[in-house]
Structures are given as C-alpha cells and as structure tokens.
Amino acid sequence: MVSERTGAEVLVASNRGPVSYTLAETGPPGQAGRGAAPALTAKRGGGGLVSGLSAIGPDTDAVWVCAALGDGDREAVRRAAHGAPAGGGPAAGELDTADTGGRRVRMLDIPADIHAAAYNGIANSVLWFVHHMLYQTPLEPVFDTEFRAQWASYETYNAAFADALADGAAPGAAVLVQDYHLALVPGMLRERRPDLRIAHFSHTPWAPAEYFAMLPDDIQRQLALGILGADRANFLTRRWAANFMACAATALGADCAPVPPETAAADAPALVSHPAGRPAHTTRIGVHGLGADAGFLRERAHRPDVDERLAALRAQIGGPDRRTIVRVDRTELSKNIVRGLLAYRRLLTDRPEWRERVVHVAFAYPSRQDLAVYRDYTAEVERVAGAINAEFGTPGWQPVVLHVKDDFARSLAAYRLADVALVNPIRDGMNLVAKEIPVVSDGGCALVLSREAGAHEELGADALTVNPYDVTGTARALHEALTMPHGERAARTERLAAAATALPPDRWFLDQLRELTG
Question: Coil, strand, or helix at residue 346?
Fold first, then answer.
C-alpha cells in the first residue's frame, strides 16, 4: 500500500515524540471553561533521537511519527488535521513546524484506552519487566484473559504505527523504529511495504532466553518475528544483541537460522527467518552504544542557572571539605535507588570516619506514577533516605540530600560537584548518567558502576564495578572511591569521558542510517 502522494525518504517512529502539548482554557477573566478556545503550549524535548534527526540536515525529507500522549497532544492533532492555527504543517495531519523546531512531525491520535492498555498494560508492565528481569516470580507474571485483552491493544497500537509509516513513506524509504513499545511494527510494516528499508533499535536490555521464555509461546514468537521484520535489528551492547539472537532461535526454532559467518556481511551477524506463509527474510544484527553529547553538556553545565543551583547545593551540603556521592535517576524500579541508599548507610555504619565528612546527593525524579508499584517505590526511596538522616544526622550535617522534583539544571550542578558517581542499576540498556557525569565533573569523579548497566561494556575498565544486589560490596566500593588518590581519579575521569563520548547522538543516528541505506 504505497502512498499516492510523494512520501518521506526517512521516517523515525517512537512512542514519545520531540514535542508535547499542554492545554489550558483561555478567555475573559472569570470566563475560563465557558466556551473559551483552549490554548496550546508546545514544549520541545531533547535526547539522542532529536540530535540525530537534526544531524541529517534540513534538505533531507524526514518525518517523525509518534503518539499523542495526553489531552494537549490530542487537541494539537485535531487542529493539525483541520488546518487550524496550531496545525497546518507541510502535509495533512502534521504538526506546526514552529512547535517542533522545524521538524516534520506526525502525531497519531490513537484512542486513549488502546494507548493505555498497550503502554501501561504491556510495554511498561510486561515487556519492561521481562527485559529488566524485575518480576517477583512467585507471584507474577500472570498471563490471563486481561493480559490477552491488553495484548490485543498492543497489536492495535503497533498496527496504527505500521499503517501511518506505510502511508507516509516514499518508495524505498528508510524507516527507523524505536524501542519495545513498537516491537511488532517492523514485521507489520514489512507486510504492508516490502520495498522499505527498516531498522529497529532496542533502547533497553534484551532478556536472556530462559527469562524471555516465561512469556507465552505465541507472544515470544510474535515479538521475535516483529523485530526480524527489520533489515537491521540494533542494540546498545553486544550482550543484548546476543540475548536477542538466542531468544529468536528458541522462540522460532526451525523457522529461524543464523547466516553462516562466511556468507554474512563482515560488519554484523545475521538471522534468516522463514516461517510458513512468509518469504524468507534476512536481518542483520548491529550494536550502537549511544554516547553523551559532550559539547552540549559542557556548555549547558556552565550557564547561570546551573551556577545558581550549584551554589545552593554547596550551601545545603555545608562545609567546603565535605565529599559528595552523587546519583541522578528516575524512580524507575530498575535503577536500584533503595539498595544504593542502603549501601550508603552501610558505609556510614562500617566506616564511621566518613560521618560528617560525606553527603549523598540523591536526585530521584518520580517516574510512571500512574502505576501503583512505582508510587510505592518512590515512597520507599523517601522513607529510606529519611531514616538515614534520622539515624546519622547532626545539627550541622544532613547525610542524604534528596530531591524528587525534576530539574535538569540542578542535575548538571550535581554532576559538576560529584566526587563519586553511584550508578548501580539492577539492569539497564545503557545508562547515560554514567557517561554524562565524567564529562561534566569539575574536579574529576570516581565511578561506581553496576556490572548490569549496558555502559559497563564501555566504561568498566575505569570504573569500580559492583554487583547491584550486594549492598556490602557496594559500600566497600564507595569507600574505595572516596579514598582514591586525586591523580588516579583524574586519569580515570579523562578516560571515562573519552569512552563516554565516542559515539555522540548525531553519529549514533547517522551510523544506523548509513548502514540501513548503504
């Protein structure tokens, strides 16, 4: 089903787009909500995809396809469809480029109940938990009729993206599909538009085969075939790529086979999938370890608002000679914030000489608060931090400085003053914080890093490696980091920063595009 109009040459698909809208009622004073036209405010996002898409240049015909995530987004889509002031982009249904930084963005108004079931019910409550190995298996998961209804919504959600991409792509266009929310899209799109060149990128870990196998057999098969509809399946590390290949082989059996090394391309291993009723298709497996944007971070970290927050943090920490252990995370279950706090408490218990000499600056920004398990986890982070302060605090020393309100400038200020960076996820696709802190740190920092972070593949040689479950071992690593000689810390920081910025977002994106179209 090739579009009758000229389509885009490059398309990016992701659940969240580069812009979001908030909705407010306007009108004469006291008249809000009485027929007044709702005002829309656009807020642009950042990150690797935004930087990458910008890198391909304004002359490239590129479109970003994403989902409407709230009432403001849905109103913007409706206006775009009708050519109202907040819409009227380069093509019907595209957002106003004044809101998107000049990018062509098509936002899909998928029914809210379908999106909620696909996003919260499947993507965040099943696929995220599987790939991060977070289930408490004596009690969960339970794949029952409710799960099947949610899975049907996930299929519908993915089909909506596949339809939009098929409709909006020029013949032979390149389509880069992002993440676990859209795992079925490559296979669906392949059926609709076999002429397209399709890539899928997994920003999360990929579960080992024995853990992935807890999913129902038909769901395993759908997910494997969905990814294998792509010409290239890309991952953040070699470990996650190898896990995917093992899962595909287990789920598909005789319907999937590796391409012999002597006939595969030199740059990547490959799998051939050939289920009954579908032509055989070869998918090459790639690894692209997203790095930090050094230029942006260093410039942004020295703006006046960051300097102001840095001064405020120093005042809150107290004492010019106090050392700092810094962590910056969302209160995502996989980030392991509670065990990090427990390790800090163990440090203060076992090494009393650090009392009143070190402060743990912990930024734990609430995540996915529409899910009860995340609300409970955020509350537990606050409880444990409060307990440490109650147990060890003195009139002149607050052991844990905890902030739970998202503030990027304050995060950069914390990066700058970090003596030690604590990054101890249970499991993480990459973890950019581990890469960003060494780039921004004013005096150099020692990195305490979980072996289960994807970033460990690149940074492990110069980090202090920890088992994320071992609180005592993490406490020992914190002590080692705090006592590391300045010269060694500076040398390690320099090497960490070089490794962290080896594949900045623009090159990360362009490398994938070149491999897909080359």
Answer: helix
In CATH, which superfamily holds the domain spanning 8-25+35-290+507-517? Glycogen Phosphorylase B; (3.40.50.2000)
Rounded distance, CA 112 to CA 183, Å? 20
Angle, to 10 degrees, between the axis of helix 185-192 and the axis of helix 217-228? 60
Spatial separation of the C-alpha atoms in residues 121 and 127, rounded to whole Å: 9
Express each pLDDT in 210-247 by its tens digit.
Answer: 999 999 999 999 999 999 999 999 999 999 999 999 99
Q: What is the enclosing helix (H) or strand (E) of 494? A: helix 486-500
* Strand ranges, E, within 137-275: 169-178, 197-202, 232-235, 256-258, 270-273
Supply 513's token pair.
Answer: 């595009």
Asked if 141 and 135 touch (Cβ cutoff 8 Å), the reply is: yes
Query: CB–CB of 240/206 below 8 Å?
Result: yes
Q: How many Å apart are CA 273 and CA 358, to the nearest integer?
A: 55
Model confidence at 85, pLDDT cuts 50, 70, 90, reads very low
CA angle 145, 151, 155 (to 5 degrees): 145
Task: Give the separation between CA 327 and CA 400, rounded to whole angstroms.
Answer: 11
The C-alpha atoms of residue 285 and residue 228 are separated, in whole angstroms, by: 10
Gap between the Cα atoms of 6 and 61, Å rounded: 10
Number of Cβ within 10 Å of residue 355's Cβ equals: 15
Query: What spatial distance separates the first Cα and last Cα of the chain, rounded to whole Å?
Result: 24
The class of domain 294-500 in CATH terms is alpha beta
Task: Give dist(CA 475, CA 466) in Å, integer.
Answer: 9
Tell me where in the chain the CATH 3.40.50.2000 domain(s) lie: 8-25+35-290+507-517, 294-500
Length of the chain: 518
- Spatial CB neighbours of 307, under 8 Å, sequence gap ≥ 6: 413
pTM of structure: 0.92
Q: Tokens representing 356?
A: 């009143």
pLDDT digits 0-9 by tens, 353-396: 999 999 999 998 887 777 788 889 999 999 999 999 999 999 99
- For residue 53, pLDDT beyond 80: no
Partners of 13 in the beta sheet? 65, 177
Q: Which residues lie closer than 8 Å to 21 by C-beta, 6 or more apart?
A: 40, 41, 42, 43, 70, 72, 73, 75, 76, 86, 99
How far is 144 from 138, CA to CA, in rounded Å? 16
CB atoms within 10 A of CB 410: 21
Closest-CA residue to 227 (of 190, 260, 266, 280) = 190
Other CB atoms closer than 10 Å to residue 350's CB: what's the count? 12
- Describe the crossing of helices 145-168 and 185-192 by its angle, rounded to 10 degrees: 50
Q: How far apart are CA 337 and CA 367, in angstroms?
A: 13
- pLDDT at residue 92 in the model: 52
CB 381 within 8 A of CB 337: yes
Which structure tokens are listed for 204?
Answer: 């999360």
